[in-house]
Amino acid sequence: MEQYKQEFIGFMVDSQVLKFGEFTLKSGRKSPFFMNAGAYVTGAQLQKLGEYYAKAIHDNYGDDFDVLFGPAYKGIPLSVATVIAYSRLYGREIRYCSNRKEVKDHGDTGILLGSSLQDGDRVVIIEDVTTSGKSIEETYPILKAQADVGIKGLMVSLDRMEKGLGGKAGALEEIRQKYGFDAAAIVTMQEVVEYLYNRPYKGQVYIDDTRKAAIDKYYETYGA
């Protein structure tokens, strides 16, 4: 496994963003692990997170895009931190854009926060994690309603490697098939398990035999 992936897994654990236990997800699934980018709360954490995202986006999509779109609400700090890192690392000025949950009817009106969208803009969507693909079903119409933009791809920090809404292919693969744009992740859950299983990280084993069995059972039902 690449060194930066090992570092990112450790970074998620250190930041208490990746947790293990029993969790109910937005999709309604009961999961033995949970990833919450909202737990990145310090300046140092957001700086490092933006750098990981910027490197992954650059590796997958290069510089051939104009706007980084982060769906409300968690996508807002993700997009801001990443465009800052992208400017510093690659000297490329990418605009950030997010949506509001409610349309604003005074002052800075509309549904968008940050940059406006123009016909011909090339957009990369950034999210913390995609479990079933439901969030893209909400995001895609918002983007296309604002302007005739081209979606370059989606970048998430963790690919949970679960079935999408169609119940067969993985969520990221379903997105590729349905919308025609790429979808990628900094790390996959398989890589997380591979790295943490029965291996002490800073003196603690996060995935022991019992937890590994719970994860395996979960993937028997929901794994792609």
Helix count equals 7
Shape descriptor? globular
What is the strand content?
25-35%
Q: What is the makeup of the main sheet?
A: 6 strands, mixed
Structural classification: alpha/beta
| Residue share in helix | 40-55%
Integer average pLDDT: 91
How would you spell out the order of helices and strands? HEEHEHEEEHEHEHH
Distance from first to last alpha carbon: 21 Å
Give the low-confidence spans.
none
Strand order of the largest sheet: 5-4-3-6-7-8
- Radius of gyration, in Å, reads 18 Å
Overall strand count:
8
Description:
The protein has 224 residues and is α/β, with parallel strands linked by helices. It has seven helices and eight strands. The strands form two sheets. A six-stranded mixed sheet has the order 5-4-3-6-7-8, sandwiched between helices. A hairpin with a 5-residue loop joins strand 1 and strand 2. Helix 2 packs across helix 3 (75-90). It starts with a helix and ends with a helix.
